[in-house]
Amino acid sequence: MPNLDAAFSALADPTRRAILARLALGEATVMELVEPFDLTQPAISRHLKVLEGAGLIVRRVEGTKRPCRLAPSAVAEIDQWLAMLRRALETNYDRLDSVLATMKPEQ
Fold first, then answer.
1. Is residue 43 part of a domain?
2. Angle at 6 between CA 65 and CA 26, to 5 degrees
3. Per residue of the chain (107 residues), what is the pLDDT tens digit?
4. How far apart are CA 39 and CA 81, in angstroms?
5. In CATH, what number is assigned to the domain containing residue 17?
6. Domain around 94
């Protein structure tokens, strides 16, 4: 997971998270992504550059437009890393449950 640090760094910004949430609905151009924000097109383009550098989105050339979409492999990498943490927490909770089950209640 070489881009994990870059991905979490990119996700630290609320605007970039909002852009990803919009892209979860489907592909969009830069101008479509600018609409809901009080930001300029160059500012959104800088956010997109960070997201693309982190591997969270991909862009393609379609004439003069460059539609963006989510990169499923990057989301899958983050999900795998979080799944590892979930398994570790489940193991810890299972051990705690075992300890608590062996304890006698005080009277």
1. yes
2. 35
3. 457 889 999 999 999 999 999 999 999 999 999 999 999 999 999 999 999 999 999 999 888 888 999 998 888 888 889 999 999 999 999 898 888 888 877 76
4. 32
5. 1.10.10.10
6. 4-102
